[in-house]
Amino acid sequence: DYGIYNVVTNTGVIGSQKDVFGIYSEVSNTGATGSTQSTYGGYFTVTGDGGGTSNAYGLYSDVSGADTNYGLYIANTGTNVDLRLQNGETIENDTNNQINLGLGSSGTLLLTSSTLANITNSAGALVITPATELTLTSDFDSGVNVGASTNTQAPLSISGGIGSNASFIVNNINSGDLIAASASGVTKFRLQNNGDISFYGNQ
């Protein structure tokens, strides 16, 4: 069964630009002075049948054959979100060419390949829960900055402060050293769990 069934075929040599549309929708809503106004270029409601094996698609896109293929192309000339999901999650491409992901009040972003990690908004705090290990990589000229992108270059560079708190706080809840430093795999310094400090070499 089809609510709308549309087949458009365009063949032959085209010497100039030509646009071919399967469905073209242009909607304008202006002049409102009050109440809530909602304007839809397309509105779809789909209810599938749970009997047997079934699939229900609100929107299905299968695109191929062109030099550049877009399964979904969104051009938002305003300042609002580009895509909003039912529970408040949003995707926005802002004026600085940054992709902003809004997780709503308690949403979760799943990076999946058997779920690599969960990224959760918890009362305004970003919580990353990896499935196994979380690795932040660095090489000879790039590292991880905490605080600002203008930090002094290092594999890990921390800049900033909160009140009179230390810039770097370690709380080891097990029995191992609090801090251990090494060079080429050889231990040079240890801050032990009991507070003792051990230096190695000619110290």
Q: What count of helical segments does DSSP give?
A: 0
User: Which class best fits the helix and strand makeup?
Assistant: mainly beta
Strand residue content: 15-25%
- The secondary-structure element order is EEEEEEEEEEE
Mean model confidence by pLDDT: 80
Low-confidence stretches: none
Using only C-alpha atoms, the radius of gyration works out to 27 Å
Q: How many strand units?
A: 11
Q: What is the distance, rounded to the nearest whole angstrom, between the alpha carbons of the first and last residues?
A: 83 Å
**Main sheet: strand order:** 1-2-3
Shape: elongated
* Largest sheet, strands/sense/barrel: 3 strands, antiparallel
Percent helix, as a range, is under 10%
Short description:
The chain has strands spanning 83-84, 90-93, 99-102, 108-111, 117-122, 125-130, 144-146, 156-158, 179-183, 186-191, 197-199.
Task: Write structural notes for this entry.
- It is built from no helices and eleven strands.
- A hairpin with a 2-residue loop joins strand 9 (179-183) and strand 10 (186-191).
- The strands form four sheets. Strands 1-2-3 form a three-stranded antiparallel beta sheet, with no helix packed on it. Strands 4-5-6 form a three-stranded antiparallel beta sheet, with no helix packed on it. The protein has a three-stranded antiparallel beta sheet with strand order 9-10-11, with no helix packed on it.
- Helix content is 0%, strand content 23%.
- It has strands at 83-84, 90-93, 99-102, 108-111, 117-122, 125-130, 144-146, 156-158, 179-183, 186-191, 197-199.
- The chain is mostly beta strands and 203 residues long.
